[in-house]
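seq:
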Amino acid sequence: MEQSVIFKEPELFPFVREQMAIDLINALHGAEIGLRGLRSRHLLRRLWDGVTGKGQELHAQIGTDIVTVQQASIELLREIMGEVERTQYCQRKVLENLLELNHELDQGIAGVEKNSESIQQLYTMYQDLEKAVQKKLNNEAEVRRLTTLFTAHSLYKGVGSLLSSSLFIADVVHLYFNEAPDILRKEFTTALAIVKKSLKKQPERMEFLILSCIHELQDDRLEAMAYLTSGHDSPLLRTLFYLLERRMSQLPVNEATVAEQVQLVRNLHDPYRQLQWELSLPDMFVAQLTQELLSSIDGEADLWKRIVLD
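struct:
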């Protein structure tokens, strides 16, 4: 037989549940009193009750009370088991929710770690960008400082106009050594344009320009320039080093010795014929000297190639 809805959902019938509990308690109490009274009667009374049927009636009442107690106990046990089952279901759902929450928490922690890595990468990129911007600003400030000193004839004092012009261009380009070739060409062209304003516009003989470099040098600058031009295979620096050594040795340096050294270098150390021209504009002479300086300073032999070829 199908179970009553009252026992399926007792929480929906609180009054019936309370009444069942009261009936159970009363039945237990009635059975206890009936049994006690039956045991306390005398033998003749019990025999009389047996003859008249009173005893059987009393026994039937006690049996009814016991059945009522049993039924109430079973229903109460069913309700208790239902509560236990519901409690287990609730515990199971709580555990499932806790596991899900723990999984979401793990995902959240992983997301935080990933975001932390992304933030660190962005911070590193920001630092690199900040360094690049700061370096660009520093280079621009240094170029302005060099340009101001050069145009005021306060830069590279005592080395003459041709050598100071070459050193100025080389210093400016050297600031942008790690930049792209187009930036190097731009800085070289800009510096050369500044230099042109301070140089003569008419061409001169190559020997005269080289001799001017030697004669314009002050005595206290000879050793420094000899060190700068020493140990290189480029034709113009090789020629200048030889003539600087002659002047440091107090040997005569004139047009004849310059022409002799230039001819020697042309024949033996100028495979690309860089000194082939008899005449040259001062700015072209400066550009060639700058090329050789950029190919020798700090061992950066490919710097001029990047400017010209890339």
